[in-house]
Amino acid sequence: MKPALVPISRRVRAYCAPVDRATETPTSFDPTVAFNFDVPAAPWFALGDVANLKRTGATKVAPLVSGSKGAVAAQFRTTLDATVAFDFLQWGKIQMALSGGSQHMNVLATNGASGPDTGNPACSPVAVLAGSTATELVVGTGAVDALNVGDMIACDIDYAQQTGYVGSPAAAYVKDPADVNRDRDYLRRVTFNVARVASKTSTALQLDQPLLGGDPGLGAQIQKVVAFADREGGSFFQEWSLLLTLEPESGGRTCFYYPRVQACSPASEAGITCDTYKTSTLHAELIALPVQDSIDGEQVACWRTYFPASGADLY
User: Fold this and answer.
1) Statement to judge: residues 120 and 179 lie in one domain
2) What domain range includes position 202?
3) What's the predicted TM-score (pTM) here?
4) What is the separation of C-alpha 10 from the centre of its chain, rounded to a whole number of angstroms?
5) Are residues 94 and 204 in the same domain?
6) Do residue 118 and residue 215 come from a single domain?
7) Residue 63's pLDDT band (boundaries 50, 70, 90)?
8) Strands (DSSP E) found in 111-170
9) Cβ–Cβ under 8 Å, residues 1 and 306
10) How far apart are CA 119 and CA 133, in angstroms?
11) What pLDDT band is residue 3 in, cutting at 50, 70 and 90?
12) Beta bridge partners of 303
């Protein structure tokens, strides 16, 4: 066996980034640009370690026959089909969304009034003021007291009867405003712009991580979140760009980049038993949607990239 030729890894790490649903434009992964796997640059977000990775390529190939004996003269691909499955080892909003597939909801804190399911009347939102960033939300003197260090918050604009993809980034699809009861807080119920308050000043909230959608837009407001919820069923499909990497112990790094993936199985959990404890993991099964390679216009579903270790044989 040639030295340092076989990739060896103890762990697989997952990262995701938004897809522009309106234009079907994914977030790119450029192997020529340094990627910080510990602190990835926006819009990429680290999703932690995954286990039981299984990649399946089911692209069908058919022969082209010719001559009196029907000899195979060439081959061509008839369908492009690729799936990937794994178990998230940590829970979070994006992990739940990718493994569940449909709308993923923020359970907003209520003022004590009762309502249907996770749609209880929520506490009044707090306006985000000019000068706010993805990591600091300026709300002003007095208003800052509505939230405490450690609270989870959702940040988005009011729902104003928009249709199509809504939320930041695209978190749901609305066909008719009546479907969501013209709920002012609907976008904050589904948005991925969530974070935890790490500290406070007299006028602003410092967040423990950047908002996924970046700096808040004009008219954004925040509300307290008490939990995350997903549901079985619904018509919306989550779609994200996905990057999986085998952390190198020796022999280099291997990356699997899926520009567009959607969940293709119902929400489910798996389990890992350690001594007398059992850990619940989030099982995700995703189908890869094709994109056009800018190099030659070919349709592709994923890229496998190998970065050889320094000094390793190349073949």
Assistant:
1) yes
2) 104-230
3) 0.88
4) 23
5) no
6) yes
7) confident
8) 126-127, 136-138, 152-156, 164-166
9) no
10) 28
11) low
12) 257
